Amino acid sequence: INYVSNSKYSGTNNKYLTWYNSGTVESDTTSLGFTSTVSEKMTPISASIKLKSASKFVALNNGQTATVTVKVRKGTAYNGANERLIVGRNAYGVTSDTVLATGTSAIGTIDTLSSTTIAATGDGVFEFWVDCDGTAGFINVTDWSVTVS
User: CA-CA distances (angstroms) from residue 107 to 3, 16, 17, 70, 76?
Assistant: First the structure.
């Protein structure tokens, strides 16, 4: 994926904006009913190329699983497919990028995406992200949590 990123967007500390070929991802401090005061605002520009959130990485030992939970919210004009929680392909049992959960809530409603991975087949790191697509509107992503067992 090609991108350009600015970690101090508009000269503001802790404000970032990243441009991808499939849209933009930026920090958003608008109050949306999340627990966290900052979310990722994902604004896709393509109905056929998925826009990925920032990745979350989780270290697992052989035999462990991770239960990953994230909150998402569709903006009022969002016209893309339902957002998805993905675990990336790895050398520890996940043989392809895999959809763990898909959003089902209406526009403007907070949705919780949550799922448990397969058991790791070795000590390693699992990568997770949320993706979306569309040509109008945005989604917000925040409040990630992980339980390893």
Answer: 28, 25, 23, 17, 6
Of 53, 71, 80, 149, nearest in space to 114 by CA? 71
Across 30-34, 85-89, 129-133, 140-144, least confident range:
30-34
**DSSP class of 80:** S
Q: Is the dihedral of CA 48, 52, 53, 59 positive or negative?
A: positive
pLDDT at 148 (0 to 100): 97
**Edge-to-edge strands, sheet with 17-20:** 3-6, 17-20, 23-28, 39-44, 139-148, 66-74, 110-116
Distance CA(39)–CA(34), nearest Å, equals 8
Give tens-digit pLDDT for 69-120: 999 999 989 999 999 999 999 999 999 999 999 999 999 999 999 999 999 9
HSE (side-chain half, CA atoms, 13 Å) at 44: 25
Q: What share of the chain is helix, strand, coil (3-state, %, to 5)?
A: 0, 50, 50
**What's the confidence (pLDDT) of residue 19?**
74
Token pair of 41, please?
């605002």
Lookup: tokens for 80: 């893309």
